Amino acid sequence: MIKLIEMNIDDEIDPCEDFYRHACKKDQSDHSTFVNIIEKSFRNEMDELMKSDKHPIFPKIVELENFVKLLDPKLINDTDSARFEYMEKCINNKEEARQMLLDFNKLIYNHDESDCCFTNLIFDTDCERAADNLIKRLKKKFNDVAKKGKKSWNNFLKFSGNFKAFLWTKANNDLILRSRELFENLREDLMELIEETPWLINSNTVEAMTEIANQLKVVDTEMITEFNQKEVNDALDSIEKCTFLTSGTAKKYCYATIEVPRCEVNWNRVNAMNFHPYLSLTNPVLSILSLNLTPAMEYGLVVSILGHEYGHTLMRSKKDHILVPYFSENVTTCVQNQFTRSCSFFKEGLCETEIMQFDENGADLFGGHLTYEAFKKRHSCVLNKSIRGYEYCWTPAKLFFYSMAAVDCYRENSESNPDDPHHASKIRVNAVFAQIPDFAEVFQCDAKSKMMQSRSEQCHLFGSKAPEFF
């Protein structure tokens, strides 16, 4: 893992001038970035798990995947084939024509009475005219179902990948336990900071903030897995029911209307979510914990993500006081000023600091500072001890910063998206590191270096040095 970090370093850029571009070499293939390698490795693990694990749901997942790949819901918009199908049955076999109409009664109007809806067409002896009338009545339904079906089945392919990822987590439950242990270390440190925070003490809100901070917990995916397993079985039952319908257009229509399992979050990507009171790490993030990591890398790569997500529970803008009905205006101003200043020093394109970005900006600074202090507290005796056997002169302290930057490493221009509450990755990394006092010491940065010049003022979000009042 250290060699992977070394591979991305740009020696021509001084870490004190632009740490992000020093640690994340520009204009190289994204395939060599840490995140891409981790995600690819995780997908390979999924493939191996599918081959070796005898879980009874795996064949069903494969069955659904194969079905989805063969099905194109847009085919039901092929009105010519539906028209010819009815004409042929109308001319050659009235009973089959009647059954086709009954199928559509059931599918579209949810009942199969013989005297309803489409079945009156069976009495039209002009089969061509009857077929034209049928298609006119079905056309909008066909179009709506085709759109919905395509979206639904494409979503299932993402769901199936997620489901396999959940099963991987179940087989690696020790990683969930380790992530919880690391998270509890952060919580322990945060509780101490909250109790010392002047703006909380002076507003008599220490207890309330402590309660909110104590609510958050790392979620176990086993319950989600069981629920999703039921959804898979329900979808297969629906396919089986459709299969027994008359062949042809009605069957295709039926397939396209099946409510397949869907998901909003891609658990196969390096990501994390705070759905307070639940914090979730995606499976590739958990898989990082299975690697042979030094404590510095464990904290930089994984605990920093936990810290950022923890920040989302506590760092709230004025417009979003659902969890925290009070917050320090001085803290908000300090955070935003830092990102504005980092933009002026390091932008590679569009870079503006808006109030809607505060939750992310605040979580970045909060998580980075809390994580580094937690690492330092537990490994202070080895912070500056040399790690031998590599191209670069490593210490655990240096490795922490490189590891944390690796999670946000992208090759292209680091530019803000006006619709995204996150700042550009380059700004996020450099702003956070400028705010960690030990950074300058670890890399021996001169006060006139860009990384040091870019710091607006030291932001103390929580703890004894935080602002006195809201």
Automatic annotation (TrEMBL):
SUPFAM superfamilies with a match to the protein in the record: Metalloproteases ('zincins'), catalytic domain
GO molecular function, one term: metalloendopeptidase activity
Peptidase M13 C-terminal domain ranges (all copies): 290-459
InterPro entries tied to this protein: MetalloPept_cat_dom_sf, Peptidase_M13, Peptidase_M13_C
CC terms in the record's Gene Ontology section: plasma membrane
Biological process terms in GO annotation: protein processing
UniProt superkingdom: Eukaryota
Gene3D superfamilies linked to this entry: Collagenase (Catalytic Domain)
Protein name: Peptidase M13 C-terminal domain-containing protein
Species in which this protein is naturally found: Caenorhabditis angaria
